[in-house]
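Onboarding guide, step 5: your first structure request.
Type a short instruction followed by the sequence, for example:

Predict the 3D structure of this protein.
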Amino acid sequence: MEYKILGKYLSDLNRDFIKYSEPILSEYSLTLNMWRCMMIIESNKSCNLKDIAESLNVDNAIITRNIKKLEELNYIIKVKRPEDNRYFNLCLTDKGVFTLNIINKYQDTWYEKVIKDFSEYESSTLINLLKKLCSNI
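The system replies with structure tokens like these:
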């Protein structure tokens, strides 16, 4: 029966995450999507706009605006691909790496709060089940 209110549980979790995240992100002039873009860029050294849009399952135009703002804030730079100057890769600047590390530590605190009563197995299972749910969308 609880599955019938799964949307409410996911909404409550998301709302708490946003409430927790927005103050720290705003200190660095970031939005949740911009922070997510930075995480993808950090984990994939040769990514481009299309890669990020696909990873976040959002429109290319949204990513283009986010990337432009991240460049203006000096969190990322575009590096032309050596094999083809028409294309570029995105990389975090030193400022971007520093800022991302601060925000990620802050986000780790939120994550620890929400899984405090979970075993390692339970938290791992939860993440895997949520990934599976999202792949079904």
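Each response can be followed by summary notes, for example: The two ends are 21 Å apart (CA to CA).
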